[in-house]
Amino acid sequence: MPIYWDHNATTPCADEVIKAMQPFYSEKYGNPSSPHVAGKTAKIAIEEARQKVAVLANCLPEDIFFTSGATESNNIIFLSMLLVECSKRKQIVTSHLEHKSVSEPIMILAEKGFEVLYLPTKNGVVDIDEAANIITPKTALVSVQAANNEIGTLQPIKELSEISHKVGAYFHTDAAQALGKIDVDLDWWGCDLASFSSHKLYGPKGAGALFVKRGRSGFPWPCVLRGGDQEQGLRPGTVNVPAVVGFGEACALATRYLFDDIAKLSSLRDWLEKTLLDWFPWCIIHAQDAPRLPGTTSLAIPGLPADLLISNCRDFCISSGAACSHGTVGSSFTLQQITSDTKILDATIRISLGRSSTKEDVTKFVHSISKILKRLS
Ligand code: PMP
Q1: pLDDT for the residue 332
Q2: Is residue 246 domain-shared with residue 155, that is, in the same domain?
Q3: Average pLDDT of the residues in 62-86
Q4: According to the model, what pLDDT value does residue 86 have?
Q5: 354 alpha-carbon distance from chain centroid
Q6: Is residue 323's pLDDT more than 50?
Q7: Same domain (yes/no): 94, 189
């Protein structure tokens, strides 16, 4: 088995998660909307999962709405805004670091007459001083991710949320890469809206959540999805019970292990970066001094293009640019915020460590890179 170093793309399901989900595929298969006992069993399981997500994110369970993942959560927000016939505020403020599930729906809003402003960034982090000038009483919604999927930088969410609220704007954060990796505290951050994804924290794919402060009544736009009352109409459609149960279990595990995971992954990431710099001193580590996700490193070894490195380093699953989009490195807006040097962009890889990663993996990696460089020279 190759060494899996691509945990920002997805994670394996934890054993406990698979165990928790299993009965909901077999004996506990009821539809949670059914009034009979099988339905009630499924409904109770969903509510328990909601509670577990809320504990990890520090919010009220009634403010969590299950969706199929962060892509759907993000789309629900922006596409719902299109349904408002006349609005005094038609300005969105965001950044060039966002995932496509934020940036593409925002582009539709731009086509439909919304003004879209982009916050400048420095070293992969939104410039908070500039934010106060750009976010004004014209702004309807500010959307800035909590953690970047490519370079791992963390954004000043609490400060952005405060600036937004001062001018009466809503604040949304795409926290798909943050939940289970850093201490996500929605209450302290003061977000109005947040998006989550289960498969980034050892839960199953196809599950996630949309957080709305004050629950259904706190969602200020008409619902874009129609056809059922599930999740109070915000996300109609039969709930994927096994996946939601798995997501809940993944959150319970993350609540238990979060600070151990943070300590382990940040020290392993620092060790990886130090070892790489010792062996290949010309290696460039992006945003190394910015606040970053514990297990993420984005780096370039100039002279070794990312596609060559990846195709020659078959013992490792690593990514160039953002693996969860189709993107080539050249199309990564995030990396373009960091450097315009195409040789560095072409050589950039992303390593995202996880619970199974070890120091021995690091040693194997530097030996592999060294062999590749020798072969290519
Ligand atoms: N936002 C970010 C920052 C992400 O990294 C991802 C997943 N790559 C998503 C949104 C989409 O999440 P999902 O796969 O749950 O749709």
Answers
A1: 80
A2: yes
A3: 96
A4: 78
A5: 15
A6: no
A7: yes
pTM for the whole structure:
0.96
Radius of gyration of the chain (CA): 21
Please state, in angstroms and rounded to a whole number, the distance separating the CA atoms of residues 326 and 335: 15
Which of 252, 270, 290 lies at the terminal end of a domain, its last residue?
252
Domain of 180, in residue numbers? 15-252
The residue from 252, 286, 308 where one domain ends is 252
Residue 324 annotated as catalytic: yes
Domain count, the chain: 2
Whole-number Cα distances in Å, 139 to 68, 102, 114, 363: 29, 17, 10, 50
Same domain for 43 and 167, yes or no, is yes
Q: Which residue, by CA, sits nearest to atom 6 of ligand 1?
A: 176
pLDDT above 80 for 321: no
Residue 70 Cα to ligand 1 midpoint, Å, equals 5
Distance 364 CA to ligand 1 centre (A): 29
- Co-location of 316 and 229 in the same domain: no
* pLDDT(239) > 50: yes
Query: Do 235 and 282 lie in a common domain?
Result: no
Is residue 154 located within the same domain as residue 291? no
Residue 223 tokens, joined:
């619902």
| Spatial separation of the C-alpha atoms in residues 337 and 327, rounded to whole Å | 16
Atom of ligand 1 nearest to the CA of 323: 8
pLDDT tens digits, one per residue of 256-287: 999 999 999 999 999 999 999 999 999 999 99
